[in-house]
Design a protein that fits this description.
The chain is α/β, with parallel strands linked by helices. It has helices at residues 4-11, 15-30, 49-61, 64-68, 77-91, 106-117, 134-143, 161-167, 190-207, 267-280, 288-297, 305-320, 343-350, 377-393, and strands at residues 36-37, 100-103, 124-128, 146-150, 172-177, 212-216, 239-244, 257-260, 333-334, 355-356, 358-359, 369-372. Helices cover 43% and strands 12% of the residues. It binds pyridoxal-5'-phosphate. Pyridoxal-5'-phosphate is lined by residues 41, 105-107, 132, 178, 182, 216, 218, 244, 246, 252, 257.
Length: 395
């Protein structure tokens, strides 16, 4: 007999992947240019030139066996040091290479944290809707813990602190935040993070064990109108930072990121548990070539200006047609309300115009749709009249 829960997961692709595959099939029928695929968060801007320069230099200058060989499980010390130095230069922190554990992207970073922190099946992690759907998979199937959801505050998608407070229990092991957020683009302010830190400190004291903040930050650099993104680890000491270069450097297929382990009293056990979780999950080490690329390009980003233009066009266009939407401050997603309460029915209807949208229910926020705008600007320009036609069907 096979493991029934993973068998079920393998048989049913995520809705996002399902829509993405549907788009590929439709593209084969009517041409890629006639499909408006807003389903997946695959950056459409190329990596910065620095990435290609680093790759060529590494491949020319170093021995292939060294470039492609295994590294230490936590990542080669020189690569970790370069990344720690970059964080320190940007945030005025004092991290050392020994606080970093390099991973195969943010998905691995968060999975490792859930696994490392889970001691019993009663342990709980609190997530805020709308959330990245894979959290449920990583928490419940990967770590064997429980996922507790705070419902969305749909007026602004900020934290509903009363709802959060009601969800703490003696089993709470961690709270997961994702700012800038996928799918709604919200960015938490310093005030929000400070209030969260206060509540976490108070609950940790009440229950007699630290409650960790797991800050999933793959969109940290993707923000608009000069919006500041406070570094969550500076507001609460028990923060595990989960990062990846998938979005900032447009390298999602290369699988490179890290966990930053906080310098707290139980540090050595915490770091060891992170290493142990990476081992259990079979990650061995982050890709050695891209460890070096990340180390050399930690201070760079892809050209993010196209996302700003896409956001402007889409947000202004859709709101002028009557779609209600919280204006995103970061990431590359828009999360408007659907024009009927049943978001699945709405997204199904949108397919008539070859508009591929993801129902908000998958993110724990029914009645919404996620639009990934990491696409060519022209795709948005051509899609807007179709959104208009779709809106007219509801008048
Ligand atoms: N966390 C969030 C919030 C994401 O949106 C994503 C990817 O879209 C991930 C984690 C996984 O990122 P990675 O591709 O680096 O594993």
């Amino acid at each position: 007999m096979l493991n029934p829960s993973v068998l079920a997961l393998g048989k049913k692709r995520s809705t996002i992947r399902e829509i993405f595959e549907y788009g590929n099939r439709r593209a084969a029928q009517v041409g890629r240019e006639n499909i408006f695929d807003f389903s997946i968060g695959n950056p459409n801007v190329p990596p910065p030139q620095a990435v290609q320069d680093a790759l060529l230099d590494i491949l020319h200058a170093q021995q292939p066996t060294a470039v492609h060989g295994y590294t230490s499980a936590q990542g080669a010390p020189a690569n970790r040091k370069a990344i720690a130095d970059n964080l320190n230069a940007r945030f005025g922190t004092h991290y050392s290479a020994d606080q970093l554990y390099l991973t195969v992207g943010a998905a691995a970073s968060v999975s490792i944290c859930f696994k490392a922190l889970t001691a019993t099946p009663e342990d709980e992690f609190i997530v805020f809707a709308p959330y990245f759907p894979e959290y449920l998979v990583f928490i419940e199937h990967g770590a064997g813990a429980k996922c507790v959801v705070v419902p969305p505050q749909i007026s602004d998608f900020q934290i509903d602190f009363a709802a959060l407070e009601a969800r703490f229990s003696p089993h709470t092991k961690g709270v997961v935040i994702n700012s800038p957020n996928n799918p709604c683009g919200v960015v938490y302010s310093v005030e929000t993070l400070s209030r969260l830190a206060q509540m976490l400190t108070q609950k940790s004291e009440e229950y007699g064990h630290p409650i960790y903040l797991i800050s999933d930050e793959p969109y940290r650099e993707i923000v608009y109108d000069g919006q500041p993104v406070p570094f969550a680890a500076q507001t609460y000491p028990h923060t595990l930072v989960c990062y990846s270069y998938s979005k900032s450097l447009s390298l999602p297929g290369e699988r490179i990121g890290y966990v930053l382990v906080p310098d707290v009293a139980e540090f050595s056990d915490l770091y060891a548990a992170v290493c142990g979780a990476g081992r259990v999950l079979g990650y061995v080490n982050a890709p050695s070539l891209f460890q070096q690329v990340a180390a050399r390009c930690a201070g760079c980003t892809a050209d993010l200006s196209i996302y700003a233009e896409n956001r402007r066009l889409l947000y202004d266009g859709l709101t002028s047609m009557g779609y209600a939407c919280v204006k995103p401050d970061g990431a590359f997603y828009l999360f408007p309300r659907t024009l009927e309460p049943n978001d699945y029915a709405f997204c199904e209807r949108a397919k008539k115009y070859d508009l591929l949208l993801v129902p908000g229910t998958d993110f724990g926020a029914p009645g919404h749709m996620r639009i990934s705008y990491c696409v060519q600007t022209e795709t948005i320009q051509r899609a807007l009249p179709l959104f208009q036609k779709l809106a007219e069907e509801y008048r």
